[in-house]
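Exercise 7.
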Amino acid sequence: MRRDLLTSLTAVVAMTVVLGLAYPLAIAGVAQVLFPGSANGSKVSFEGRVVGSELIGQEFGGSAFFHSRPSATEYSGNVTFFGNAGPNSAAARDAVRESLAAYVRREKPYDGSLTAGRVPVDAVTESASGVDPHISEANARIQAHRVAAVRRLSLARVEELIGESTDGRSLGLLGEPGVNVLRLNIALEEEAPR
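Solution. The predicted structure, written as tokens, is:
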């Protein structure tokens, strides 16, 4: 029995060292060498300071900026969350209705033709993680009217910036193109600072 305990203890210590220390350190080292930007959080700098990450959405206040998708966690990268409320959930229905009404109130003064039926789903619902840094091109085009008016830029120029901040489909065929909100807002600040 003593031999079995010693063998078990040796195995636990060995596996802890190999799988708990050596393997994570090796993977982190390889990532730092091959993909240093991604390994360090894909941080984005603007005017000499880190302003966010290309991988995590964030809140942008004011009418001069594009707004991210709603988030239940206030875009906290260490607490991602998605409410699993089903299509029959009254709470989910009410939250979407509230988000839709707020979106239309914010955007309609700048785009008189906007109706609730034209609002893209991503404008009023959370992503699966709650921290998605992208919005749809349709959502960005609606918000472009507001941003162009507030920043006194032409709508055509704002739409060009949207195009420059749009990521294509993964591997060329998976998912939909998405507009990186942080990159787009930085481009706007460079073009027409507020």
